[in-house]
Amino acid sequence: MKVLVPVKRVLDYNVKPRVKADGTGVDLANVKMSMNPFDEIAVEEAIRLKDKGVTEIVVVSIGEQKSQETLRTALAMGADRAILVVSETKVEPLGVAKILAKIVEEEKPDMVILGKQAIDDDNNQTGQMLAGLLNWGQGTFASKVEIADGSVNVTREVDGGAETDTLKLPAIITTDLRLNEPRYASLPNIMKAKSKPMAQKTPADFGVDVTPRLTTLKVVEPAKRSAGIKVADVDALVGKLKEMGVAK
Amino acid sequence: MKTLVWVEHDGQAVKDATLSAVTAASQLGEVHLLIAGQGVDGVAAEAAKIAGVGKVHVADDVAFAHALAENVAPLIVELMATHDAFVAPSTTHGKNIAPRVAALLDVMQISDILSVESEDTFTRPIYAGNAIATVQSSDAKKVITVRGTAFAKAATEGGSGEIEAVASTGDKGLSTFAGSEIAKNERPELTSAKIIVSGGRALASSEQFHATIDPLADKLGAGVGASRAAVDAGYAPNDYQVGQTGKIVAPEVYVAIGISGAIQHLAGMKDSKVIVAINKDEDAPIFQVADIGLVGDLFKIVPELTEKL
Ligand SMILES: Cc1cc2nc3c(=O)[nH]c(=O)nc-3n(C[C@@H](O)[C@H](O)[C@H](O)COP(=O)(O)OP(=O)(O)OC[C@H]3O[C@@H](n4cnc5c(N)ncnc54)[C@H](O)[C@@H]3O)c2cc1C
Ligand SMILES: Cc1cc2nc3c(=O)[nH]c(=O)nc-3n(C[C@H](O)[C@H](O)[C@H](O)COP(=O)(O)OP(=O)(O)OC[C@H]3O[C@@H](n4cnc5c(N)ncnc54)[C@H](O)[C@@H]3O)c2cc1C
């Protein structure tokens, strides 16, 4: 069984994003970039499924040349080979999904495991779009994945609790935070990953038009909250809450 | 613009998040609703009364009973032949369905909008709400999800929508619903609670979480939330999580107890009207956004507070 895992290079989740003064976006110059945390979970899940019938894990990234680093990280974790689709310009989830659909046609995986959202654009779209384009089932926001005969049971985090759906394979899965705890790559594995194969493509190779449909007119900082007051003790807090009408 | 709003319901009643989506849709033009489900006459009658709605399309079929995206999306795509925009609430079901619809229509979705600037221009949060982008769509049809806390809820009375049955597009045979565990919760739902009391990692166990947080919440008639750290450690159920990847809330009062204030947590609650923070570390980032802060040991403060209220 083959699994495809798309991974995205994003601003590291520990870095506080800064909006550029000219309002064109968030400043990504000289800041730490990492693999989208949900995609680490996706890679980890694919690796764990290796005991359960998965034989090959192919990781894909669509982005600038530097996304090679992100792919190497996935290879060091345990993926087998990588495909980089180079685009130095913005590719929206719809474009990403179209490129992934073409790669699926070529690679014929049984499952594609994606992150549920990328923590930069917070779109939460790509997996569902890919499922629509391929006419596959989609198990989004997964907290548990169990492969059965010709199908996969996916427990999903939904408002109010959890839901389990059975999907016919091939299928799309998107990962939620509690699916697993991703491993760190060991030094020997990081060294080994350097010689694992990485193919380079462009969106044009797949005949996909990635012209953006959305134009970002401006990016601003949200209204700032300012720190309020500190009260000395519980009585003062109760007093404040009464003043506000929260407590009687 | 003719707009189709997907109505989220539980088979019995329309969910609140739908009402915010209706408000957003009404800023685009004429509002039509879609109710897909099984045995949904009651829901349809209720939805028809929402202020300002025109047609109420009702698709009643077992294939729609659990809102599986694989079955619902093709139905929406058919209806979109006569609509210009599709709007869904940013709930887990809304987020599951809308992008599939967008891909089938070859449209780039605009996720989680905060405002409608014009028919094609919207604002939306990026980077966990640390930046707000204004985006303009060049697609002929729009597919939009709506952040519930950013729009007022449409009135549930006063409308007289015209109910119209639509033919089912059937079961696509890709997925089946196998079961669900929806927690029975007597407390107000987080996304509509006026007051929320949230606990963090500092609560240190499930027993202490409930013993400390619940009585205060009961006193205040509040909903209960949690940080991801508290949820991951098993102190609180998954759907308590507030934050970038949990619930986005904006109550009148948010009480953060033993929560440090990581940006991913702030992303979910910083639009609350009043933030109260209790933390033993006076430098905890939560105090940078709190209106009222109290530095000290929560295990002393919270019981005392509960008693004195
Ligand atoms: C050079 C460059 C410049 C950019 N500039 C901007 C900009 O100025 N403004 C802006 O808003 N956006 C910009 N982007 C982001 C833009 O590419 C898309 O918005 C983004 O790829 C998809 O949105 P998302 O990650 O929020 O999707 P989501 O739907 O949230 O992603 C979900 C999952 O899909 C997969 N996935 C998504 N994208 C990729 C990818 N590229 N490769 C592999 N897997 C992926 C991952 O598994 C991810 O977890 C830029 C991207 C690049 C490469
Ligand atoms: C991709 C991604 C998504 C995430 N999404 C979310 C999300 O949606 N929601 C979310 O909450 N987090 C999210 N996180 C996690 C986030 O980064 C933080 O790790 C988390 O919010 C920390 O939870 P906490 O504040 O409870 O714990 P901690 O950061 O450990 O804080 C505990 C606090 O309790 C205080 N304390 C300890 N003992 C006491 C005491 N006796 N009395 C008073 N105070 C005490 C400490 O001073 C400290 O400030 C996400 C992370 C990632 C990477």
From TrEMBL, chain A:
Keyword entries, A-Z: Electron transport, Transport
SMART domains: ETF (SM00893)
Cleaved signal peptide residues: none
Alphabetical list of SUPFAM superfamilies matching this protein: Adenine nucleotide alpha hydrolases-like
Domain Electron transfer flavoprotein alpha/beta-subunit N-terminal: 23-210
Domain of life: Bacteria
InterPro entries (alphabetical): ETF_a/b_N, ETF_b, ETF_beta_N, Rossmann-like_a/b/a_fold
Pfam families: ETF (PF01012)
CDD domains for the chain: ETF_beta
PANTHER family: ELECTRON TRANSFER FLAVOPROTEIN BETA-SUBUNIT (PTHR21294), ELECTRON TRANSFER FLAVOPROTEIN SUBUNIT BETA (PTHR21294:SF8)
Family assignment from sequence similarity: Belongs to the ETF beta-subunit/FixA family.
Protein name listed in UniProt: Electron transfer flavoprotein subunit beta
Organism: Sphingomonas albertensis
